[in-house]
Amino acid sequence: MKIKRENNIPNHIAIVMDGNGRWALNKNLDRFKGHEKGVRVVKEVTKYCSEIGVKYLTLYTFSNENWKRPANEVISLMKLFRKTLIDEINLILENDIKFKVIGDKTKLDILTRKKIDDLESKTKNNKNMQLILALSYGSRQEIITAVNNLLRKNKNKVNLDDFINSLFTRNIPDPDILIRTGFEKRISNFLLWQIAYSEIFFIDEYWPNFNKKILKNIIKDYNLRERRYGKLD
Questions:
Q1: pTM for the structure as a whole
Q2: Which of 109, 150, 173, 220 has its CA 20 to 30 A from that of 29?
Q3: Under-50 pLDDT residues of the chain
């Protein structure tokens, strides 16, 4: 087999972090303990990506569909999210990481929106890596929002650049790798437009069991794949 791009680091990695609750229930723990463990994995993966030269890391943090969960769980998750932003600000600043949230922020409470705005402002000039959290996010909703934005501009004809620049991910390159943990084999309304040519990896581990060793092996596998984009060998 011909090896392509040996030791090449992907520019953009996107991850569906699935399985926190099931990990906890399998250990007879409260579901929230799984989310707490999942946050620690986020810290490990973020630090590792910033060290090896990944430029964009997008994490599916909370989907539009997650709003349907019990109210007490949603409230707890938002509290954990705000606490994590406070606790990990030094990690973000020390590693020169730019922080960004994509999604429908209007659904978020005012405290959460303020924490996001503060951290985005503090890190807007950071250059090493961009950490993008998809929060209150759904890809179908993103596409509809983009279409409505174009309609408001009275566009009679739209080209690729027009549409791409109307997405939440404008100025962010498409992912080279999409990873999903949690034993599931589906995309779950995540970056549907952006992953058209991404290499996809479904991992039979819950997110709290994910680690940089697994990610390192995924990158090795990625470097064995040929990305032809419809062209012949």
A1: 0.93
A2: 109
A3: 1-6
